[in-house]
Specification:
The protein is mainly alpha-helical. Helix content is about 80%, strand content about 0%. The chain is built from 8 helices and no strands. It has helices spanning about 5-10, 10-25, 30-35, 45-60, 65-80, 85-90, 95-110, 115-184. It starts with a helix and ends with a helix.
Length: about 180
């Protein structure tokens, strides 16, 4: 018996408990809604949590394809990066998987002496956590970039309006300025 086989056999239990842990990171008033996975349009956050935890678990069990793992993490992180989470809270959902695996599979891990495999799995979860942090950083950088560009556009529009007003005002005043210049 390998840990991979145990994880595969217990996938539904592990993933469901992980999903619940992720949903529990949200404020209490929104948890019930998030648990109703529904469709991707009525409940996009619940849908993404449901779909991507399943995908991430598959990546973890099947030697973590870096690109596929990154894509799944990115979908979850994009949502969390725009919400009121601290950076550590936004990416902490990955680490929730470690105690869940230990708790749900403790007896089998002990019986089959799978400690080395458990350590390798936890190391993979740590790598996934670092990937989530990278994704979060890129998302927050992009959000900051969007805000800066928006501020620049707003400032440019304001300057254009002020210049237009000044041009309108100086047209009326240009005669006065010309007269003053002629008097000198």
């Amino acid at each position: 018996m390998t840990l991979r086989e145990l994880l595969t056999r217990n996938k539904e239990r592990v993933v469901e408990k992980w999903r619940q842990g992720i949903i529990d990171t949200y404020p209490a008033d929104g948890r019930d809604f998030l648990q109703q996975q529904g469709d991707r349009f009525a409940n996009p956050i619940g849908y993404v949590v449901h779909e991507e935890t399943d995908q991430l678990f598959e990546h973890l069990v099947n030697d973590m394809d870096p690109e596929g793992t990154r894509v799944s993490l990115d979908k979850l992180i994009r949502i969390r990066a725009v919400q009121d989470f601290l950076p550590s809270e936004a990416v902490s959902f990955v680490l929730l998987l470690k105690p869940i695996v230990r708790e749900l599979l403790a007896e089998e891990i002990k019986t089959h002496a799978l400690y080395d495999e458990l350590q390798a799995t936890e190391d993979a979860i740590d790598r996934m956590q670092l990937m989530a942090l990278d994704s979060y950083t890129l998302c927050r950088d992009r959000i900051s970039e969007i805000k800066v560009n928006d501020a620049r556009r707003s400032t440019a529009k304001l300057i254009e309006r002020l210049n237009a007003r000044l041009a309108e005002g100086s047209t009326g005043n240009s005669c006065n300025n010309t007269d003053k210049d002629n008097d000198r």
